[in-house]
From TrEMBL:
This is [Ribosomal protein bS18]-alanine N-acetyltransferase. It comes from the Bacteria. Belongs to the acetyltransferase family. RimI subfamily. It catalyses: N-terminal L-alanyl-[ribosomal protein bS18] + acetyl-CoA = N-terminal N(alpha)-acetyl-L-alanyl-[ribosomal protein bS18] + CoA + H(+). The gene is rimI. It comes from Demequina sediminis.
Length: 152
């Protein structure tokens, strides 16, 4: 159900990005460049026989980081983001990361609820992180020492 995205999935991902994130979406060019050159994994989740969401994670230089996560609107509240979070946390643990990090818009109630359910704690606010909208980001961290697979 969860698999690596292939290059042929990237145009689909770029379209979903644009629909969900508007002006601050990752562009197709950025996605295709990062896919080839970044230290990231692109993971997709299938439901009802088609791709329904994705997560991008990996080392961003010095920390294991969730860089992107989305589920198609019609597929939400079915546990797909949970499954992607489990995949992310399992990989972070497999590579020996002590903790995991992410940023989330302070206005994104659904994502904040998801991350808090997974034990992420507030670290600091990055002012006007999301451009061009100028929305603040909350930096969140979760230690992996307390993580048990399958139970947030
Ligand atoms: C955030 C997002 C990925 C959640 O995806 P999802 O597949 O619907 O999430 P799940 O069904 O796995 O939900 C897991 C838990 O997250 C929380 N949650 C998810 N959506 C929520 C919402 N709209 N309101 C409140 N809590 C929510 C709940 O705790 C939920 O558990 P529950 O259903 O047992 O109550 C999805 O809403 C999305 O793609 N949003 C747009 C993109 C985005 O904002 N990505 C995050 C960028 S940082």
């Amino acid at each position: 159900m969860i698999r690596d995205l292939g290059e042929s999935d990237l145009p689909w991902m770029a379209e979903v990005e644009s629909e969900l994130f508007g002006a601050s979406a990752w562009s197709r060019e950025l996605i295709e460049h990062d896919y080839v050159y970044g230290f990231t994994r692109y993971r997709g989740i299938e439901a009802d026989g088609r791709l329904a969401g994705y997560a991008v994670y990996g080392y961003d230089g010095d920390a294991f980081h969730l860089m992107n996560l989305a589920v198609l609107p019609a597929m939400r509240r079915r546990g797909l983001a949970r499954a992607l979070m489990e995949d992310f946390l399992a990989e972070a643990r497999r590579v020996g990361a002590p903790d995991v990090w992410l940023e989330v818009a302070v206005t994104n109630d659904a994502a904040l609820a998801l991350y808090r359910a997974y034990g992420f704690e507030d670290v600091r606010v990055r002012r006007k992180y999301y451009q061009p909208e100028g929305v603040d980001a909350l930096v969140m961290r979760r230690a992996l020492s307390t993580y048990e697979p399958g139970s947030p």
